[in-house]
Every structure is written in structure tokens, then in C-alpha cells.
Automatic annotation (TrEMBL):
Signal peptide from the UniProt entry: 1-22
Keyword set, alphabetical order: Cell membrane, Lipoprotein, Membrane, Signal
Organism: Paenibacillus alginolyticus
PROSITE patterns: PROKAR_LIPOPROTEIN
Name listed for the protein in its UniProt record: BMP family ABC transporter substrate-binding protein
Cellular localisation: Cell membrane
Residues covered by the ABC transporter substrate-binding protein PnrA-like domain: 53-349
Domain of life: Bacteria
Membrane topology type: Lipid-anchor
Lineage, top ranks: Bacteria, Bacillati, Bacillota, Bacilli, Bacillales
Length: 355
């Protein structure tokens, strides 16, 4: 099956000590939580090691999305760059400061945190530990000399999967579609990392099929699969036969509900086709694993820069994939042809959701 970027259905990182996939595999052994995951080391004996700690948000590294991708990138860096790595998983927001502090006190060279929810903690602790390099994934940051933010132009990959869905709705190009011109979205919170995906999706659908309306609902949280399922059932009752979850762990319930109802889902962050092969028809991919490796490599080699670094289609930071035989090749080719126009700026995509 042709894709915009040839990426296997499951991005297997052979170096993962826990056997995690880039998109993750739910049957793999879960990494340890905060207890015992950041051992106290003998700093004298480890003086020449470059140490990188990863602090997950409360979604944990089995969330099938950004936390797992960050962890995959961390383990790839460990294997390919020779750095020492450790993980601490946060169980609640109150864990953020102590978890980050633990790595800082243990002399880690770089601490990577997942998501905007840890911005305040990093802002506070970066001043207390000015020799430590901090990276916040999925959040912009400015004017802190030892902190880098990483953002992704997910409006670009959102646009591509939206364009694909719009084309599939023309004449019902896949089995089981209804006659209603409605597709659904479940967002976690109305924040930039979520809304950029949704905005791109809206514009992509409108590009290829202006008759289709995009019904957007927010769950208000990222860790409630039951709520995701409930919202999806409501979207289905309102006519949606495609649903796009941009809601972390809440999105797992969206995909399960879509599978049960025999409609289609769009994966987010990773290639999520493996979660429901006949349901997840395409995925908008935020290549957090690649970005994580790139940030570690730069820091290890002395090229760490504070401020915000953006990843997009041009530097491989985002992409789309469709690992199913349900999508006709001519439609994939049409979507793929849009990539050059996005890279060149011919197609301009806003990251702002249309209300």
C-alpha cells in the first residue's frame, strides 16, 4: 500500500528493552512506574556518560500516542547514541515536580518531559538547576536559556488525513458508509497541540469534499476511554461514519467504539492501525520518536539550543500513513500529491479550529 511516507504499520524499535512499538503494543510489558525507575548513580564512575531522563505525563508510556513515542525515541537514542537513559512515569500532576527534581538531583544532563502540563514545573526547576538541559515535548518555550520546546505542525498531517476522508466520502469509496455528509472529531482539550490537528483535518476535508461537515466535540480529558466511547456513540447517532480522536488515552475508547459500530477511525500521533486493522483507515503521525532522538543527539554533541524547535513535513516531523487495502490507490496518490504543495507553501493551513 502506498503511503505519503513509507512507514510500517507498526514502527518496531529493535532496541526497546520492553519490546514497545513506536505506536506501541498493548501486550508488551509495561515499563516501571516512578518507584525505582531513576536509580541513584555513582556520579564519579558515570562522569563521562551523557544521562537523559524522561518524565511522562499521567497518560503513561502505554498510551498508544505521544508518551510511548517519546519513550521509543529515548530507547533508540540509548542504543544508537550511547547515552544512559531512565524513565519515570507520573501518576498524577502532583508527581511532576518531584519526578523532574529526582533526575536533576541525580545529575542528569538532559531531562525530557512530555506535554504542556509540565511547563510550570520545568519553568520553576530550570532556574534551580541551570546546568541541566530541559526539553518540553509538544510545547513552545522562550527566554529560558536551558530549556527547549518542541512543537509539531500537526495541522499538516491533519490536513492530509482530512483530505483522504473527504475523498472517501465522495461516492462512498469504502464499504459501510452512510449517506450523511458528516464526520466526527473527539478532542481532549481545546489547546494548541490538539486544535492544530483538528484545524488541519477540517481544512483537508473541505479541500476535497466541501459538502462534508466536521462535528467536533471535546472530552475535557486525555485518560478516560469510557468517555471517549460515549462521545463517539453520540457522534455516530448524529451521522458520523468516520471519527478522528485527538485525545490521548481517551482516544482508545473512540477507536473501540468505532470498531463496535463498524465505522471508521483515524489514528493520531502514531500509526494506530494495529489497534483495529479494519477500523483505523489512516493515521496522522506526529513523529515524536524522531524528534526525541534529534534533540538528544544535538545536546550530546554540544548543539543544544534553547527556544522552540518546530517539526513538520519538511523535516520529517509529521506524516500520514494508510496501512489498509480498503483505501484505493488512486485516492492515496491524490493525497500524497498534496504534500509538495504544503511543503512549498502553495497550500496554507491554519492551526486554528473553525468554530
Amino acid at each position: 500500500m502506498a503511503t505519503a511516507k513509507k512507514i510500517p504499520a507498526i514502527l518496531l524499535s529493535l532496541t526497546l528493552s520492553f519490546g514497545l512499538l513506536s505506536g506501541c503494543a498493548s501486550n508488551s510489558k509495561s515499563p516501571k512506574t516512578s518507584e525505582g525507575t531513576a536509580p541513584i548513580t555513582n556520579q564519579a564512575s558515570q562522569a563521562k556518560e551523557f544521562k537523559v531522563g524522561l518524565v511522562s505525563d499521567t497518560g503513561g508510556v502505554n498510551d498508544h500516542t505521544i508518551n510511548q513515542l517519546a519513550y521509543s525515541g529515548l530507547k533508540t537514542a540509548e542504543a544508537t547514541l550511547g547515552v544512559k537513559t531512565s524513565l519515570i512515569q507520573s501518576k498524577s500532576a502532583s508527581d511532576y515536580v518531584p519526578n523532574i527534581t529526582r533526575f536533576a538531583q541525580d545529575g542528569y544532563d538532559m531531562i525530557i518531559v512530555v506535554g504542556f502540563t509540565m511547563s510550570d514545573a520545568v519553568t520553576q526547576l530550570s532556574k534551580q538547576y541551570p546546568q541541566t538541559k530541559f526539553v518540553i515535548l509538544d510545547q513552545s518555550i522562550d527566554n529560558i536559556p536551558n530549556v527547549a520546546g518542541v512543537t509539531f505542525k500537526t495541522e499538516e498531517c491533519g490536513y492530509l488525513v482530512g483530505a483522504l476522508v473527504g475523498l472517501l466520502k465522495q461516492g462512498n469509496k469504502v464499504p459501510g458508509l452512510n449517506e450523511k455528509n458528516v464526520v466526527g472529531v473527539v478532542g481532549g482539550l481545546p489547546i494548541p497541540p490538539v486544535d492544530s490537528y483538528i484545524a488541519g483535518f477540517q481544512q483537508g476535508v473541505q479541500k476535497t469534499n466541501p459538502k462534508v461537515a466536521v462535528n467536533v466535540k471535546y472530552a475535557g480529558k486525555f485518560d478516560d476511554a469510557a468517555l471517549g466511547s460515549q462521545i463517539t456513540q453520540q457522534l455516530i447517532s448524529e451521522g458520523s461514519d468516520f471519527v478522528f480522536p485527538v485525545a490521548g488515552g481517551t482516544g482508545n475508547g473512540v477507536i473501540n467504539a468505532a470498531k463496535s459500530a463498524n465505522i471508521y477511525a483515524i489514528g493520531v500521533d502514531a500509526d494506530q492501525n494495529y489497534l483495529a486493522p479494519n477500523t483505523v483507515i489512516t493515521s496522522a503521525m506526529k513523529n515524536v520518536d524522531k524528534a526525541t532522538v534529534d534533540m538528544i543527539k544535538d545536546a550530546k554533541e554540544g548543539y543544544f539550543k534553547s527556544g522552540t524547535k518546530s517539526f513538520d513535513l519538511s523535516n520529517g516531523g509529521v506524516s500520514f500513513v494508510s496501512n489498509t487495502q480498503l483505501v484505493p490507490k488512486e485516492i492515496l496518490d491524490q493525497v500524497t500529491s498534496l504534500i509538495g504543495d504544503i511543503k512549498s507553501g502553495k497550500i496554507q493551513i491554519s492551526p486554528i479550529v473553525k468554530k
